[in-house]
Design a protein that fits this description.
The chain contains 7 helices and no strands. It has 254 residues and is mainly alpha-helical. The protein starts with a helix and ends with a helix.
């Protein structure tokens, strides 16, 4: 990892040094007075900096194990930078050396190429950032859903450690709740955050209730078991209501 960081930093340092050296080299080749030579050096320098910065950024993303959503946009940005670099080289060779355009026309062409490159690259980068943020948000919600399903599964495991005629019925209800949560959409609407919090609060109370089943006397157990069944059904209705409201919310936003 240390060598990879050093390599990345080396590319970023080169992105600052190499373009300056290229600009000075072109300037000296042009005798310090040829404006087109300076402009060619600046254009080539920008292309070199773009390639080096992009390479350093790719190394940085690999080190951080960037999300899969970034890959298509990284490839697109690499393609755009490659096209820009090739365009600059062709402009320098053809327009700067072969046809020897006048200074203003040569500057205008390079400026238009740089502006177009910057706009397209910025758009792709913004879209990529949005896709990555959306994927991260989905990942958080999916992890929260898995955590909730595992929580209910743990409560079932605690319930099945108990014995009694009422345990299989409660386990069947808990299994239905677990399956409903498992196949629910993990991406909640912003308006349903309070309901998500309510569901988790009810599950926490249910966990305490299951613990209580094993602690009460035999005489009080049927009543506690019935209360537990009511709590499970209440949570199940809340989850189903939440899923229905989410469907309506999504339909309203499309």
């Amino acid at each position: 990892m240390t060598s990879r960081v050093a390599t990345r930093n080396g590319f970023w340092l080169a992105a600052a040094i190499v373009p300056v050296a290229t600009i000075l080299l072109f300037g000296f080749i042009g005798g310090l007075t040829d404006i087109n030579a300076w402009m060619s050096g600046i254009a080539i320098g920008f292309a070199e900096a773009s390639v080096l910065l992009f390479t350093g950024s790719c190394i940085h993303q690999r080190r951080r194990k960037a999300a899969a959503s970034k890959a298509p946009f990284t490839i697109a940005m690499g393609f755009i930078i490659g096209v820009y670099a090739v365009s600059v080289i062709l402009e320098v060779i053809l327009l700067g050396n072969l046809f020897k355009l006048s200074g203003p026309a040569y500057l205008k062409i390079h400026a238009m190429t740089l502006l177009g490159f910057a706009v397209v690259l910025a758009l792709v980068s913004l879209i990529g950032r949005y896709a990555f943020a959306h994927e991260e948000k989905e990942g958080e919600h999916t992890a929260r859903k898995r955590e909730t399903v595992a929580w209910v599964g743990a409560i079932r495991g605690k319930l099945n450690l108990l014995s009694g005629e009422d345990i299989p019925l409660l386990d069947r209800d808990l299994a239905e709740l677990e399956e409903t949560l498992r196949y629910s959409d993990p991406i909640p609407h912003a308006s349903l955050h309070e309901m998500e919090h309510l569901i988790r609060e009810k599950i926490a109370l249910l966990e305490d209730q299951v613990t209580l089943i094993g602690e009460v006397s035999a005489e009080a157990r049927p009543e506690v078991a019935e209360e537990t069944a009511r709590m499970i059904r209440d949570i199940l209705r809340t989850v189903q209501d939440r899923n229905m409201q989410l469907l309506h919310a999504k339909a309203g936003s499309t």
